[in-house]
Structure formats: structure tokens, C-alpha cells
Amino acid sequence: MAERAQPWGDHVAAVFIWTAAAVVTSVFVWMLADIVWNGAGQISWEFLTAPTDDAGRAGGIGPILVSTAMILGVCMAVSVPLGVGTAVLLSEFTGTNVTFGRLVRRSLDVLAGVPSIVFGLFGNAFFCHVLGLGFSILAGGLTLACMVLPILIRSTEAGLRAVPNEYRMGAAALGISRTSALWHVLLPAAAPGIVVGLVLGVGRAIAETAALLFTSGYVDRMPGSLFDSGRSLSIHIYDLSMNVAGGSANAYASALVLVALLVPINAGISWVADRWLHRRLVR
Amino acid sequence: MIPPAAPPAHTPASTQSRVLAAGARPMVEAQRVSVRYGKHVAVEDVTVSIGRQQITALVGPSGCGKTSFLGTLNRLSDLIPGCEVAGRVSVDGEDIRARGFDLVGLRRRVGMIFQKPNPFPLSVRRNLEFPLREHGVRDRARVAEVVEQSLRNVGLWAEVKDRLDAPALALSGGQQQRLCIARALALEPDVLLMDEPCSALDPLSSGVVEDLIGQLRAQYTVLIVTHNLAQARRIADNVALFWAQGGPGRLVEHAPTEAFFESPRDPLTIAYVGGLRG
Ligand SMILES: Nc1ncnc2c1ncn2[C@@H]1O[C@H](COP(=O)(O)OP(=O)(O)O)[C@@H](O)[C@H]1O
Ligand SMILES: [Mg+2]
Q1: Predicted local distance difference test score (pLDDT) of residue B9
Q2: 20 to 30 Å CA-CA from B223: which of A64, A209, B147, B250?
Q3: What's the confidence (pLDDT) of residue A24?
Q4: Is residue B266 in a domain?
Q5: Rounded distance, CA B66 to CA B74, Å?
Q6: What is the pLDDT of residues B191-207, one digit of tens each?
Q7: pLDDT tens-place string over residues B40-55
Q8: Ligand 1 centre from B258 Cα, in Å?
Q9: Is residue B2 included in any domain, yes or no?
Q10: Residue B166 belongs to domain with CATH number
């Protein structure tokens, strides 16, 4: 009897798991199909490069793409060195100070879960007003950097922790400095963790709306410098679908561009990490 | 601080004369060395002198502090959180625990081989070049020469000369361990610390590495931890027995190999040698 019950339980579990997988996959496919169906018609070179017109109903998304790239650029330029540096500090140099490390890690985990609108308000108060950057691409990028940092730090740290301790001991026993060991062995070996952090971080940054509304603003002109306000793709989509009657066609097209952008960006991250870090190792 | 211990029951000092000739300058000297991990005392009051260009085998049951003691000799113990060392350690007459002592120089002079072979995840060649470059050997021709010579010294040249750029981790365990030895030798150390270098290897590779260690005697001062008494007997000039009886590990007996096995003085040594023999 007991032997019968076992396969029955397995059967129920299998059905449950497959149903769950099917639901998740179909939701994703449906979303993607919806975006492609409604958006693909508008996509053209003209759409990708032309300035917006009639509040976004007409024209293209040229300035929006440029602003998005600039915001992302600022965010990554600030968060990558800071994030990797902090992760190195946490995993390689706080060995003897356990309480400090634990405190920082706890704070990061809390920060990673803070709703983005809170980051937006903070960014508005700190970058726009205290630092006097106003509504600008710089303020937006810096706010996004604050949001992305916890993710980046934690994944890089996890990557470094996964590197066998024998490499550290072996390097130290050969009189190799910690910096050299890090640069030549530990960071390259931690590259997979760094890539995960970057992909998650970029994903979060490029999808962000709330934090940017208050910091980089929603001016849809072509930005002249980092100190100009600029509208990101996500804000453009939000604005078109919520505030502009008749803007949904271009909202769909912009959403398609946003999703499509993630593919080359993620491929690019993996390529760069492989090329600059992992490639130094021979496995 | 570790409270000053009462004179230990077994005073290895009495055996010192059996190991070092009067007037000989030891290469490595430990005086009343103790090692603690937090509150746990792993090694207590070890005093020992290691002669130049000799192989000294450290034997004893697991957990008696052999690895901990070895770590004090190149100050790798500095890297272990919570690990505290007391006492005096000198290498070639210099107090290596002195404030501001040149650690990089120390680790160049005192190489270490670990139980589990630990080549870096780099190519065979880069495994040797990387530490050399770190120590300022930059000239390409010179580096290539040292790489080849070090590989020849460990009998690995013929086996790997055609795949110097292949991953070191693709080598067999025994080859990896010999590569690690070559990597240490490339820095021209005076002392080699080896922590059970053969115990993770198959018998055949173990034999090859053991033969290699035997040949190092002429040029290096070798301290080797081994669980294999037969191996100690084959390659060592002197044997030191560590023992932890419920408490911290101590040095019980330190004697020339022949004397250690044929006429041990300490009851623990007699039991250990006898037990493994019988
Ligand atoms: N990193 C460490 N932290 C805490 N205790 C340790 C550590 N390393 C070793 N010990 C303890 O110190 C004692 C001696 O260990 P070890 O030096 O590894 O002995 P052996 O090499 O002779 O087997 C053991 O009781 C062990 O549990
Ligand atoms: Mg050990």
C-alpha cells in the first residue's frame, strides 16, 4: 500500500510542476507576442532615429534612445568600479572584522529590497537639490547607480567567495601580493558572478521608471550634455500609455525596442567579462 | 597572550643533541612556539632546531598541530582569522616574527607545498611565470630559462614541454603536485615546507613525488609532514613526533631517523613506532 502512495504523490507533484511551468512560460510568451504583434509594425530606421513629435504619438524615439544610453552609461560607469571594489573589500579584506562585514551585508540586502520610488525621492533630494544637479541625466544615472549597487556587490561577492581558498593560500605562500592575486586569479575566477550581477543590474536599471521620474525628468528633446534632462525609454512607455491618448501604438513599439535591447546588452556584458577577465584563465 | 606554561613533561631539549652537531647553525629554529585558534590551543611550547639541507619529517596523529606549526614558519598563519602565534621563530638566524619583517622575502625563501595540489587556473607556463614576475624576474629569456629548469628539476619537462600553454588543472594529480613544487623551486627558496604532499595522490604518483623530495635534500632544508612512517623512514634525516593528548599538540621526540625508529626514548614514540610496526 505504502508503495502505491509514493508514485501517486510523485504524480501529483509532476502535474503541479508542469502546470506551473506552463503557466509561467505562457504568460511570458503571451506578453512577448502582444508586444511584437502591436509594436513590430511601427519599427523602422526612421522610428529609431527621428525626434519625437506630438507628445510621442508621432515621430520616433531617437532622443529617447540617446538619453537612455547616457543614463545607463553614467549608472554603469559609477556602479561597476564601486560595486566590484566594495565586493572585494567585503570578501577579501574583512576576514578579521566579522561584525563590520555582517553589518554591510545586512544593509545591502535591505537596500536591494527598497522600492525604487524611495530611491527616486532620495535621488531627487540628494542629487537634484543638495548637489544642485537639477533634473538631469547625471542625477538619474547616479540614482540608478545607488539602486544597482547592492545587486552588483552581492553577486560579485558571491562570485569571489566561490573561488577556492587554496588559490589565496597558494598565492600568499609564494609571496604574491593580495592585489596581484586578485587581479590575475581571483577576479577572473569570479567573472561568472560579476556577469550575473551586471545582467541583473542592467536589467533593473533599464526597466526603471519611478526612480527616474524624479531625477532625470521626462523632457523628450535630444540631450546636449549630462546636465540636461532626458527621458528614458521606460518613462517614454509609461508616459505614452498613461498620459497620452492615442499613444499606445508607439508605446508598444518602444516596449519592443526595450526588450530587444536587453539581448545585445546582455550578450555584450558576457563578451566583455569573458574577454577581459575569464580569458586570462586557462581551465 | 598565552600564559607561560610550566615546563612540559616531555622536554625535547634532551633529544636536541642527537639531531644537531654542536656548533652547527640551524636553518629554522622555533622557541617555545604556541598556536591558538581563539581559545583553542592547537600547539603549545614547541622548541625545535632544524638543520640545514636536511629532510625533517613531522609525524603524529591527525589534529596534533603539525599543519598549524608549519604555518608559523612562513607566517601563513597570519591569514587565518583568529589564529594567534606566540614564541620566537627564526629562519637563518633572523626573527621572522619581528615587527615589519619582510613577508614577501620570507615567503620567497620559505616555500610551501600543500596537501591538495593547488596550481592556479592558468596555463602550466603561467603558473611558473606569474610568481617569478611578481618577484621582479621580468627578462623574457631569463623567465623562459627558469621555467624550463624548474620543470626539469621536478622531472616534468619531458611530460609537459609540448603543452606548456595547456591548463595546469588538466594535468594529473601527481603532475600538478610536481608543478607546485617546481613553482616553489623557481623562486630559489632555502626552505620547503610540505604538508602531506603525497597523501592526495595515487600510489604511483606518490612514489614519483617521494623520490623527487629525496633528491631535494642536497639543496634545500625540507620539513615534510607525513602520515606514512615508512615514507619518513625512507626519505628523512630526522623525525619529529607531535602528540596531542587531550590537550594542545606538543613536540614529543626529535631524533635522527635511525635513532627515532631503532632506539626511541619517549614512551609515546615507542608506542607509536611499535604500534604501526606491529
Ligand atoms: N582554522 C582553524 N580554526 C580553528 N581550529 C583549527 C583551525 N585549524 C586547525 N584547528 C585545530 O587545531 C588543531 C590542530 O590542527 P592541525 O594543525 O590541522 O593538525 P594536523 O595537521 O596535525 O592534523 C586541531 O584540533 C584543529 O581542530
Ligand atoms: Mg594537517
Answers
A1: 47
A2: B147
A3: 95
A4: yes
A5: 14
A6: 999 999 999 899 999 99
A7: 999 999 999 999 999 9
A8: 29
A9: no
A10: 3.40.50.300
Distance between Cα B134 and ligand 2 center (Å): 28
Segment B235-269, tens digit of pLDDT: 999 999 999 988 899 999 999 999 999 999 999 99
Q: Is B79 on the interface with A (CB under 8 A)?
A: yes
- Please report the DSSP string for B231-271 in residue order: HHHHH-SEEEEEEESSSSEEEEEEEEHHHHHHS--SHHHHH
pLDDT at B186: 96
Topology classification of domain A55-282: MetI-like fold (1.10.3720)
Banded pLDDT at A100 (limits 50, 70, 90): confident
CA separation (Å) from A48 to A51, A180, A203, A250, B135?
9, 45, 21, 11, 54
How far apart are the C-alpha atoms of B84 and A157, rounded to whole Å?
27
Number of domains in chain B: 1
Contact B87, B30 (CB under 8 A): yes
Asked if B169 lies within 8 A of A185 by C-beta distance, the reply is: no
Ligand 1 atom closest to the Cα of residue B68 is 17
Least distant ligand from the CA of B62:
1
ipTM of model = 0.88
**Nearest C-alpha to atom 9 of ligand 1 is from which residue?**
B68
Task: Classify B119 as helix, strand or coil.
Answer: coil
For residue A236, the model assigns a pLDDT of 95
- Contact call for residues B82 and B27 (beta carbons, < 8 A): no
Amino acid code (one letter) for B203 = P
